[in-house]
Automatic annotation (TrEMBL):
Primary location recorded for the protein, binned into one broad class: cytoplasm
Pfam family of the protein (one): ADH_zinc_N_2
PANTHER family: QUINONE OXIDOREDUCTASE (PTHR44154)
Keyword RNA-binding: yes
PROSITE patterns assigned: QOR_ZETA_CRYSTAL
The protein's name in its UniProt record: Zinc-type alcohol dehydrogenase-like protein
Organismal lineage: Bacteria, Pseudomonadati, Pseudomonadota, Alphaproteobacteria, Hyphomicrobiales
CDD domains registered for this protein in UniProt: AL_MDR (cd08252)
Source organism superkingdom: Bacteria
Keywords for this protein: Cytoplasm, Metal-binding, NADP, Oxidoreductase, RNA-binding, Zinc
Residues in Enoyl reductase (ER) domain copies: 16-333
Family statement: Belongs to the zinc-containing alcohol dehydrogenase family. Quinone oxidoreductase subfamily.
Organism, as annotated: Hoeflea ulvae
Length: 336
């Protein structure tokens, strides 16, 4: 089967940073399904895994953590899917990645592909959807069904992949969304996705939020990096919650959090699969829920850019675009 792999961890401009290779077709066992991959998307985690280092792989390594496709075959313990089903999912960072023609994945972290979306549109969603969903509903305990309607959420880094779906999930739950964006095109993008207010995270966010007549916010999601930690502590309401997807070596003073009895949560969407948690199937459930919301017209894809076909050249282009840090929405590579 065709695959895009690496043997050396090189700068993305190096033509050997990704290679077109031919690998044996996997065989499904246990609770795995074998997916004929139709489209993949590239996330910042892909670029972090591929980042230059001295390691050399003895056999080609396939990365990639988003896919949509058609179930080719299933393992003997599979109960959720059958051959021919259309699916979307984000995979498992401890296993071989999605940048290959046929891919094995545990059924418990796979969702039914939204019927109303193309494979490219669906591939844009899984990793960021799981991240934003878990951040809001599992970590911050916001009520998905609207019991917290009218509460405020500040989404820092709202124009990226996680923020783009996060805006929509927060709005669907009835929240007032304050999104951050630093460029005219990303400001337009987040407004289009439903943000109620937009502030610039490259300027004084505290002043901008308070100029809206909002002194503190109920929830804060840091979806870019922890440079904004002290701003978040200043803006969170007493007994509110902050969730972050960024690990950091930057100082994180906790005095303000203590005085407010505020909570800090970490979101890492690979945790369930990595640790084989008893509730792994919740990722199947949430992806299927979001598929229903999409098919009902309440949530839209966050796809922005499509490259084709899936090969080493286009994978280098996609990684280069993500590494600029200026991409809005998602970058998808489609078709082998």
């Amino acid at each position: 089967m065709k695959a895009v792999a690496l043997t050396h961890y090189l700068p993305i401009e190096n033509p050997k940073s990704f290679l077109d290779v031919d690998l044996p077709k996997p065989v499904a066992s246990g609770r795995d399904i074998l997916v004929a991959v139709r489209a993949i998307s590239v996330n910042p985690v892909d670029t972090k895994v591929r980042a230059p280092k001295d390691t050399i792989e003895e056999t080609p390594r396939v990365i990639g953590y988003d896919a949509s496709g058609i179930v080719e075959s299933v393992g003997p313990e599979v109960t959720l899917f059958k051959a021919g089903d259309e699916v979307y999912y984000a995979g498992d960072i401890t296993r071989s990645g999605t940048n290959q023609q046929f891919h094995l994945v545990d059924e418990r972290i796979v969702g039914r592909k939204p019927k109303s979306l193309s494979f490219a549109e669906a591939a844009a969603l899984p990793l960021t959807t799981i991240t934003a969903y878990e951040a809001f509903f599992d970590r911050l305990h916001i009520d998905r069904e609207g019991a917290d309607k009218g509460q405020t959420v500040l989404i820092i880094g709202a124009g990226g992949g996680v923020g783009s779906i996060g805006i929509q999930l927060a709005k669907a739950a009835g929240l007032v969304v304050i999104a951050t964006a630093s460029r005219p095109e990303t400001e337009s993008w987040v407004r289009e996705l439903g943000a109620d207010h937009v502030v610039n995270h490259r300027k004084d966010m505290v002043a901008q939020v308070r100029a809206l007549g909002i002194h503190t916010v109920d929830h804060i999601a840091i979806f870019n990096d922890m440079r904004h930690w002290e701003t978040a502590v200043e803006l969170i309401r007493p007994q509110g919650g902050i969730v972050s997807i960024d690990d950091t070596d930057l100082p994180m003073p906790m005095g303000g959090m203590k005085m407010k009895a505020a909570s800090l949560h970490w979101e890492f969407m690979f945790a369930r699969a990595m640790h084989q948690t008893p509730d792994m199937i919740e990722q199947h459930n949430l992806l299927s829920y979001v598929a229903d919301e999409i098919d009902a017209g309440r949530i839209r894809t966050t796809l922005d850019t499509v490259l084709s076909p899936i090969n080493a050249e286009n994978m280098r282009k996609a990684h280069a675009l993500i590494e600029t840090g200026t991409a809005k929405g998602k970058v998808v590579v489609e078709g082998f």
